[in-house]
Predict the 3D structure of the following.
Amino acid sequence: MSSSPKPVKKVPIHLQSAQNRVYIKNGQVVNHDKTFKADVYIEDGIIKFVGPASEIGVPGGVKTIDATGKLIIPGGIDPHTHFQLKFGGTVSVDDFYHGTKAAVAGGTTTIIDFVLPDKGESLVEAYDKWRAWADPKVCCDYGLHMGITWWSKSVSDEMKIMCDELGVNSFKMFMAYKGLYQLNDTELLETFERIRSLGAVAQVHAENGDIIAKNVTKLLSAGVTGPEGHELSRQEEVEAEAVNRACILAHQADCPLYVVHVMSKSAGIELARARFRYKNRGIYGETLAAALGTNGTHCLNECWHHAAAHILSPPLRPDPTTPEFMMQLLANDDLQTTGSDNCTFNKSQKEIGMGNFSKIPNGVNGVEDRMSIVWEKGVHAGLLDPCRFVAVTSTNAAKIFNMYPQKGRIAAGSDADVVIWDPNMTRKISKDTHHHACDFNIFEGMVCHGVPEVVIVRGRICVENDNVRVAEGYGKFVPCEVRPAFVYDALEGKVKPEEVVNHEEEMINGSKKLNLCDALEIEIPYQEPITRALLSGNACMPGAGEGSLASTPSCRGHRIDGQRNMQESTFSISEELDRSGNRSCIKVRNPPGGKSSGFW
Ligand code: URQ
Ligand code: ZN
Ligand code: ZN
């Protein structure tokens, strides 16, 4: 073993324009698996060097940034956006320019949007439409998922073209939106089998659309027409049932499944149970900034516009303990990613649903504030460490959709999507200062620790000194190959995912680091079926005390037969919530199949 130190290889630095070359010094690099002090050198949109300053001569004529006291993290990856989506009889106002500008402003440097063909529409034609919309407008790189909104041999055939020729490796099926996008179980099984054969990744919108359709009819005919009817029509168990069913259908088809927008404790538990049942192979879950940063009590607000602005599906839940629970699931690796599902509508657009909550265009903001929300509610709250923050806001999405390590890592050879993150800086969220095109922000007034001080998009400095300077059309489409190793090597048993070993050991000997509630008890507020609530004459808030009278913001009365009676006042969701603060709860004790010290 030579005693003398190896000669340090100097990285040759060619003289080029400073804009192409950025040198970040004195920062703390944070990747999903480790954090370390290092300097970072960027040239021509690629990270060329990560390491000690001694190994790289400080070049002249290069843009140098001092990152003392700051973190150097991979640019955020938001795996779930809907920019300029035609939906609910209108079009979401954040187009691919405003949406990606807002993303970059918040530290996200890659987004993955959804092509959602109309029923009967060719997937390839729909894809071409989305590319034509996005390519000239995007300020950051982007990928595309494909929605399977109808099913036929031709759809199955075109899925192969998406994978082989057009850089799409994931397909989203809907178990809700009956009559619009919803597929039945046979169709779901067939899509899962097709996706498995292509080496792609399945996604589901997991809610039972049949229950929802029935409940919407019952609620409207009983005179419940305001935004408060939205969550009543699709309670937690309606989401949880679909999550469980989707996981079983996918497992039966041996197809990897990514459940999008997991919005409730019940659904999160079902996903965690499936992950444990299948040894973390092939089941992944996403939650949203909305679920982590706010809750469904806003949908009970006396102001119709405020309530309607918080409507998305699956809904925000009225249980105020949901946000922390979802963050704990991310900490436990029971959930893997955070998206935004950014699908914004202005107040005037939301008014389409005035008088009928089922017509309120579904969707909220999130793409700009996602990273700060996760830092505030996760890291600053002591539930996540910085490495886990990077995993759930960037790296895991890159791995699942096969963009890694091009995206999602600070390493030589990776794209120079780099954020200098100030963990101690705070910012106050407001519609008056955000970069969205919409006139509402569901996080209005929230103060978050964790602010992107500098955002570099494939080598271009787009955020610096509180200035957002993006270039429309600078972003590029990121083709995603099939068979992401992170997914398929685990699914096919080629690797034993590390966390499976730790997770199992922790589950068996009870040493699981995080126990969400004391000794296996998880408080799930009981929600009475609306059939009983509505038909009980003096309907009361599901789960509240019997016989309580009140009136909802939208409904001033209904009779036993469900007909609307303008004279009587009926249940008021907000009043019942207040009066029955300690709503009856059911406790989930030892899971079926034996003792566990955390999730099943
Ligand atoms: O369901 C989705 O993900 C799309 C249509 C956006 N809307 C929503 O409420 N999540
Ligand atoms: Zn969805
Ligand atoms: Zn969505």
The first helix runs from residue 96 to 105. Residues 205, 260-261 surround zinc ion (ligand 2) (CB under 6 Å). The chain is about 30% helix and 20% strand.
